[in-house]
Design brief:
225 residues, mainly alpha
Length: 225
Amino acid sequence: MIQLTEFFLFYYYKNNRYILPIALYGLSIYFVYGAGNIPLADGYSLTSVFLFIFSVWTGYSFIELEEITLQKLTVLHYKGKVKRYYIAKVAAAWLVSLIIILFNLSIPFLGTSIFDLKTLVSAFVAQNSIALLGIVTAMFFNIKVVKDKSIALIGTFIVIVISLAFKSIYDRLPSKLGWVLFGFPPISFSLDLINKFNFTNLLVPYIYFIITLICCLKIIEKNSF
């Protein structure tokens, strides 16, 4: 599977899929830090929001990376192991996101921010979970799960907005309807993890990722090629 992940990374790089998302991400970083120094945790929280959007974009780019003919040939080459094929795509997208995470964590220290190991570790764990949630969101709305591209794009946009505004929406909903929101990626738990490290904030995003990934893989395997 390592070779397959390397192939996806090479194909992604060769087709210049990274240029536009990284350029836009660079602008978002300038937006966060360009006005001057901000508290370390606040900066990490803001860049986490942009990271989620970037990870959804990157995940979608990898999942729909090759033309359908090449997808079929690649799966056949790996003896029809569809799950392994898509797990390798998730791994490749995560590695690209990991570069952005490391950049996010280091950029405040290029200014006058004081090094804080506890906040740094919390932010790394939180942003790693956010990247995985973004990737699995893209996977949920890929063409083998949601056939209609228009519905997939609208659904992705709605999920991003609701996930990022979870707390505000939850507070305004009647208590009997609050449970509806718990099907959305738990970004709020990851963001809270930056400021308050506890096991609930730590585990919920990763559990959500694993469950959603398993469900997506089963659906994709059933609808594959």
